[in-house]
Predict the 3D structure of the following.
Amino acid sequence: MDAITENLGLFAEGYLVSLQLCLWGLVGSLVLGTVVAACRVSPVPPLRAFGTSWVEVVRNCPLTVVLFFFAFGLPEIGVNASYWVFGVTALIVYTSAFVCEALRAGINAVPAGQAEAARAIGLTFTQSLRTIVLPQAFRSSVPPLGSVLIAMFKNSAVVGAFGVGRDLFSVGNSLTSAQGYAALPVLTGVAIGYLLITLPAGGVLAVVERKVAIAR
Amino acid sequence: MSTQVTPEAPARPAKAAGARPDTVLYDAPGPRARRRALAGSVVATVVIAALVAVVVSRLADAGQLTAEKWGPVLDPGNEVFDQVWRLLGLGLRATLTAAAISIVLSLVLGTLLGSLRMMLPGSARWPLVGVMELLRGLPVVIAIYFASRVLPDIGVDLSGLPGEDGLWYLVIGLVAYNVVIIAEILRAGVASLPRGQREAALSIGLTHGQTMRLVLLPQAFRVMLPALVSQIVVVLKDTSLAAVLGIYPELLRRANRIAQNLDNPIPMVVVAGVIFIVINVLLGRLAVYLERRMSRRTAH
């Protein structure tokens, strides 16, 4: 275990970089996913078609293909950025499709009678959306959204493996390849680092789920 | 959009139903809402068309739409066309091989692990649950990397197995993760069965093992078939992680190699992506079809 204790600083830095990757992905994919979901449920057919094709294409494509497309494809048409930016963007684009589906599932889980009752008592469209439909939709999206986000935290390791540098994966890679440490202890350290992201996230999710759970 | 219930809304249900998504968000649109939707459609179409035009002109300006870039994958007359598709075919075969082995192994081991977890008495279950939770929290790419680096390091020799070492590192990493997922899917399936199934099986004298094997698992498999098919999509996509780690010549790695030789990354990544999308969309359709059939047949 010397490999871990000697390089604790590197591991800690790698952990923070990986965490940053996750947080950027979290914010970005929630925003983009909400936009795509709004398109997908909008009454405007072209926007719906856009949302549907976005989800179908992105969801059925491996994250690695999205990554390769961003990192190797975009420079060809003159879009240049660091691997970090390409990696985070690919992670956001990939996760947005799943966020969209989680949100849409939440909206569809609201019984139609709720909206009908809201209209029947004379609420306007905006009122019924704001006070009746969306709060319930949000609550039932929480469990699927949580799994999507935890999957995204794990997928951030793929972006790391692609080579954004200084993150947990890169630390493991450079310690074993360049500095000749034995693989088992170093990679155990890397694994522990990722578990320190996903397990607490799972705990937070469980708490949030309990708070917002509704009996149907 | 303030769509109030207009008198004529119920009069045109057929027209409205065709245009509306299955959502509780809005009512059948009245004349004003329809006008707005139309205006929105026009604006959205213009914006989307403009975006597409920008992308296409960017591609054209950068010389990305030339026969030189796309010929190798699209033009059968191109001198390297046959070679490119032969390599892509090898890659696809490698991808499907790795996915198939991983899925079969995960199903078998996942069923064993899931049954074990359900049948162990409380206190003996905890270590198993702990290991499963750890494996579930670990990114798959780390599991594969772990297998490819640690196994050779500690002297595990895989050369006796058919195929190349890379294949088995990939398979081991994928299986380590998916075993847990499959076990959990089956556990959810068993939990969804009516309690009487288990009680009846035990009361006619079946042992716990027999109850699990003859009564609960077959039904759980049927209930969870759509979820299992969706997991196949995940495994298939995850085989391409080998391309990032560079341990196994599957589809994306082959495509990337070709792109390096021919200097056409956009066409090659697009082709690899389209192949993945086609396979996965078909699998997704299968899952939806199975789900429909299932909901028709299990009406307990």
